[in-house]
Write a structure and sequence with these properties.
Layout lengths: L2 E3 L6 E3 L13 H17 L3 H23 L2
Antiparallel strand pairs: 1-2
Organism: Rubritalea halochordaticola
Keywords: Membrane, Transmembrane, Transmembrane helix
InterPro entries: Zinc_ribbon_dom (IPR026870)
Length: 72
């Protein structure tokens, strides 16, 4: 459980809370969109190299296999 800031009253609120206990502002939608944004940002972070290596490697392997199988 982490503390987040309520966008309505700026008080600290539990990340599990659905409404702010101080002002009653609904946090559910904001918390879910922030979580999705953070998750999306975290997934790609540091793993771009995997795409840059795996795509050319897959192309090379396909060309190599077709060359072996269909050489005249």
């Amino acid at each position: 459980m982490a503390l987040i800031q309520c966008s309505e009253c700026s008080n600290q609120v539990s990340s599990e809370a659905k409404i702010c206990p101080h002002c009653g502002f609904k946090l559910r939608k904001i918390r879910d969109s922030k979580l999705a944004k953070d998750t999306k940002a975290g997934l790609g972070k540091g793993k771009e190299w995997l795409v840059y290596i795996s795509v050319p490697l897959a192309i090379f392997l396909c060309r190599f296999v077709f060359h072996i199988l269909f050489r005249d």
